[in-house]
Specification:
Elements: E1 2-9, E2 14-19, E3 25-29, E4 45-52, E5 58-65, H1 73-91, H2 98-122, H3 129-151, H4 158-178, H5 181-193
GO cellular component, one term: cytosol
Keywords: Membrane, Phosphoprotein, Transmembrane, Transmembrane helix
GO biological process, one term: regulation of mRNA stability
Length: about 190
């Protein structure tokens, strides 16, 4: 939904959002703001989801303050990895096929996140979290980080984020190992089979 912050208590970190048509007024907490490091203020335009809390009250969640993105450190990390991976493949005489593979998997993973978000909004069949983690593990994690930042999907769910970062570090470790002599031999034997 689209709306505007109509009340904000900066000391206590909570306030209220009213929908554009004025029919919905919901409570929100600072922890529901997805713009990292941003302190909201009255009259900020926002988009948000409405959900029931444990007591059955409606609250705003996944709040995005319009026009404020914050710095995308995770996206920068993913982009930096792709640049470093390209350089290391060149410097250490690795398999150049790994770079387009990372790009294709990243694009595919981004679209899987987008499809899952749309399915969540429409109440239709969802992509399992294990599928999204598997795509990240095999090399699509830069696309997953970009999707989390741009689409604000799976960006607040702590167990998902924790597992995603585990898959990222495992993938990076695997990539570094593929630059070793034993890793290169395995890649070449696999490619030689085709």
């Amino acid at each position: 939904m689209k709306g505007q912050i109509v009340e904000w208590n900066d000391t206590k970190g909570y306030g209220f959002i009213s929908s554009v048509d004025g029919k919905v007024r919901v409570f929100f907490h600072i922890s529901s703001i997805t713009n990292r490091g941003y302190r909201p203020k009255v009259k900020d335009s926002v988009t948000f989801d409405v959900a029931k809390d444990k007591k059955g009250r409606f609250n705003a969640e996944n709040i995005v303050v319009q026009g404020v993105n914050g710095f995308p450190y995770t996206v920068l990390f993913g982009f930096s990895f792709l640049v470093a991976a390209t350089a290391s493949v060149t410097v250490f005489n690795g398999e150049i096929l790994l770079i387009p593979l990372y790009l294709v998997l990243s694009i595919f993973t981004y679209f899987m996140f987008a499809w899952d978000k749309q399915a969540a909004q429409n109440g239709s069949w969802r992509t399992s979290e294990s599928t999204l983690h598997t795509l990240s593990l095999v090399g699509g994690w830069p696309g997953a980080l970009l999707a989390q930042f741009q689409l604000r999907h799976k960006s607040r769910k702590q167990p998902f984020k924790f597992i995603l970062w585990i898959t990222i570090f495992i993938n990076i470790g695997g990539f570094v190992w593929l630059l070793s002599e034993s890793g290169r031999r395995i890649v070449q034997s696999v490619l030689g089979a085709f």
